[in-house]
UniProtKB/TrEMBL annotation:
Organism lineage string: Eukaryota, Metazoa, Chordata, Craniata, Vertebrata
Protein's UniProt name: Glycosyltransferase family 92 protein
Pfam families (alphabetical): Glyco_transf_92
Alphabetical list of InterPro entries matching this protein: Glyco_transf_92
TM ranges: 9-28
Cellular component terms (Gene Ontology): cytoplasm; membrane
Superkingdom of this protein's organism: Eukaryota
Species this chain originates from: Copsychus sechellarum
An example molecular function term from Gene Ontology annotations: glycosyltransferase activity
Amino acid sequence: MLCAGKKSYFAAAVCIITVTSMLAASYLRLQRLSHQPKIIQEGRRCRGKIANSTITALKGNKTFIISPYFDDRESKVTRLIGIVHHEDVKQLYCWFCCQPNGKIYVSKAKIDVHSDRFGFPYGAADIVCLEPENCDPTHVSIHQFPHGNIDQLPRFEIKNRKAETFSVDFTVCISAMFGNYNNVLQFIQSMEMYKILGVQKVMIYKNNCSHRMEKVLKFYIEEGTVEIIPWPINSHLRVSSGWHFMQDGMHIGYYGQITALNDCIYRNMGRSKFVVLNDADEIILPLKHPNWKTMMNSLQKQNPGTSVFLFENHIFPETVSSPMFNISSWNTVPGVNILQHVYREPDRKDVINPRKMIVDPRRVIQTSVHSVLQAYGNSVNVPMDVALIYHCRKALQGDLPRESLIRDTTLWRYNLSLIMNVNKVLSQTMLRPQK
């Protein structure tokens, strides 16, 4: 025995710690070796049909692949954003085909189901595989086994393989648009406010919406502002519009929003300086700065090393309105006119307001809706006197009298530009008669 003959408790403790450390190091080394890519075939052409859907089901193993991304922030890996059954999916393998030598490598995946499933059996997951050292694979297939035939399996293009320069400063990620979404006027107002505040790109994970909304989306796509990511998750799983499994017992919560948000971060990692995670009825309103760029420059100088900035959500009930900006030509457009809603609910006792985020996408590993789960760098709560989230929706404190609400007209600072821009969109989308 390594510790034989040692009589003192101190010596025994040292021996136990030493042996335990050696065993732990050996275990970790074996674990890493088990995940190292191994050549299993040579001299073959890469086969398999290239996947072109946003959500691809893997046959028979309760796994859905969104997209793989190259990630070299710690080691050279392919990170697949996916959805898995948290209990039933135990092992997956990445099959890399390296051209032109035709070598096929198999790498055992680490399956990391995100902690915020809210009780649902399916959740967002990172499926992470070490890549071959002497190969930069462009595609990957996912298999349940480290052997067999993958000719019939879908092949996924690995995104972010090539370094990009930032094409935009701010990208807004909206997920997911569902329920035959028809809040047309508020959507246009939010889009135009985003643009006024400095947004160049809005990515929308769209499940479905109304015919009128389709016309508006078409306008913004042609303008170059919007990019649509099809999100047919209900073709694969029973989806809930709620957040907790106990509400309805479905497969996954809120149309898989968390998975979409993670995909949006990785999709924009190389092309957007910041990614903004909020809903279409939410606007981060700066109180001390004219736009997001000057606000974020200031916040970064004040908070070096911070990669996640969290903004407090405040409800402006759509049932309490002001007579100002009752623009008659907007009355035929379905949806809420946010300029008429400038009364916000006071903070609730013992209730913490949720937050939404502006993040540096290159420093986020996993995100939830109201906070990041894993990131490089710090998170900071932005003070309410710097900015707040204007969230116009159904009241949370519906019994409050009007005099208990707080009048907040910050939004009116932008009324001239907002009205002009909204009128332009309505005219060009033929949602109201042109004069």
